Amino acid sequence: MCASRCRYRFIDPLASPEAVQQVCQQLRERFPAFIPRSEKELIRFLYAVRHVERRPVTDTQRGRPGRWPREDLLKAASVLRGVLERETSGRVALSSFIGQFIPILSFPSDVTEALTSGDINLQEAAQLARLTSERLDCTPAQARSTRKEILQAHLKMRGSQNGLRARVKEILGETAEVSTAQMTQVVAKVDELLEIDPND
């Protein structure tokens, strides 16, 4: 009975720091002159690549000038698209790679271990990675311990992705509380919308 409810976890070969770095290294090898060497600068560069892909040329005159020439960003985008097509058989688009896979590079090591082992998927890892010592206002060791407890509970109860997101929001104090006044307004609105049949 339980086996039928358990979901199969697909281990994404691209969802690891090593795999992401390998893709980035291919990009560096193609354009060593302008692809940043440091990981931090590379992430900024790739966000600029994603941005320039979304904006037409006519938009580039507004605001402050870009840090990297538009031509270099477009060249990088073209090559990166080709690398992703080859490495993932077209499964991962450029925007998805930059928006979802590049952040893996800054995930805590315990989170990437759980991700690469297939215990959690990329979205779950992104939620756990939010539980940092800065956000929790504690030491790195305490933050790691909190993540471990949340992960173990999540795996034990075979929790959903939405359930984990809600738990993380609760821990970070991001859950929206509905005030009595708001609830009263909602109830009053519902009462207005309800039509009572006098024959009932």
Write the layout of secondary structure elements.
Elements (H helix, E strand, L loop, with lengths): L1 H4 L11 H14 L8 H16 L15 H19 L5 H8 L7 H9 L4 H7 L4 H4 L3 H17 L4 H11 L8 H14 L7
Folded structure, characterized:
The chain has about 200 residues and is an all-alpha fold. It has two domains: about 15-105, no CATH class; about 110-170, no CATH class. It is about 60% helix and about 0% strand. It contains eleven helices and no strands. It has helices spanning about 1-5, 15-30, 40-55, 70-90, 95-100, 110-115, 120-130, 135, 140-155, 160-170, 180-195. Helix 2 crosses helix 4 and helix 6 (about 110-115) runs antiparallel to helix 7. It is globular and about 55 Å long. The two termini are about 45 Å apart. The model is unreliable at about 1-5 and about 195-200 (pLDDT under 50).
- Specify the helix fraction band: 55-70%
Separate helix tally: 11
Specify the biggest β-sheet: none
Roughly what fraction of the amino acids lie in strands?
under 5%
Class by alpha and beta content: mainly alpha
- Low-pLDDT runs: 1-6, 194-198
Gross morphology: globular
Taking all Cα atoms into account, the compactness measure Rg is 23 Å
Assembly state: single chain
Instruction: Write down the overall mean pLDDT.
Output: 85
Distance between the termini: 44 Å
How many structurally independent domains? 2
* Helix-strand sequence: HHHHHHHHHHH
Count of DSSP E strands? 0
